[in-house]
Amino acid sequence: MAVKRKGSNISTGKVNNVVIREVNGQIVTSGIGQRTKPYTNGELKNQNRMALVNQLLAPVNQFIKVGFQQVTAGTTSNYRNFAMKINNPGVLNLDGADQVIDYSKAIFSMGNMPVIEDIDIQVNDEGLEFIWDPNWKLIGMKDSDRVMLLACCPEKGTAYFVLDGEKRSSGKDTLEILHFNEKVILHTYVAFIAADRKSISTSIYTGQILY
Predict the structure, then answer these.
(1) What gap in Å lies between CA 181 and CA 77, rounded to an integer?
(2) How far is 49 from 99, CA to CA, in rounded Å?
(3) Which of 84, 123, 128, 205 is most buried as measured by Cβ atoms within 10 A of its Cβ?
(4) CB contact at 8 A, 67 and 27
(5) 180 exposed, middle or buried (CB, 10 Å; 0-12, 13-18, 19+)?
(6) Nearest to 119 by CA among 109, 107, 134, 104
(7) Strand order of the sheet with strand 11-15?
(8) What contacts 77, CB < 8 A, 6 or more positions away?
């Protein structure tokens, strides 16, 4: 059943095998149906890619919601779909016959703000301390920009992040992480976001840490 929105000539809902819905202020239609023929090898490979990228993105949902908010504004794509598109298949490598996640290629935010690439990371009692040069600036950077920190832990299937960290001018911030009984590998990333949330940098991979 389709329902007409008040003040609009467009109905939303299901009409036969077509679903009509509103996405980010735009009307989108899609077909539905039951598949009877078997999946091809290419389709199965694509399904595997999708599953791996979903595995990457699931623990960082709140991070990518902020990270891709601006680039998806005014489009029919939402942050989750965009994150899938930007990371699939670029984030995957072949390991023999298997596909594996290459965390160094993952992207969790996107924007035009420049980002400092020379970032040092040190392990301390609280977690990971990220250190950068607060005096290094390019056009589009401001002292009031806030750092966004992220560490993915594939072995635990989790991630740790800060969405509104210290100011760029502080030159450092700590990402608090629990210490485990055994050593794990953390894949780390940094981005910066404007204090008014209207500008953001593309995330950069800052290396893996044995923690």
Answers:
(1) 41
(2) 7
(3) 128
(4) no
(5) exposed
(6) 134
(7) 2-4, 11-15, 18-23, 26-31
(8) 24, 85
- Which sequence spans correspond to the domains of the chain? 2-31, 41-210
**b/e for 184-205, b at 16 or more Cβ within 10 A?**
bebbbbbbbbbeeeebbbbbbb
- What's the pLDDT at 166? 98
Q: Are strands 127-131 and 172-176 parallel, antiparallel or unpaired?
A: antiparallel
77-109 residue pLDDT tens = 999 999 999 999 889 987 766 889 999 999 999
Which amino acid, 23?
Answer: V
Share of the chain above pLDDT 90, in %: 67
pTM score, two decimals? 0.81
Superfamily of domain 41-210: Immunoglobulins (2.60.40.10)
Counting every residue written for the chain, the total comes to: 211
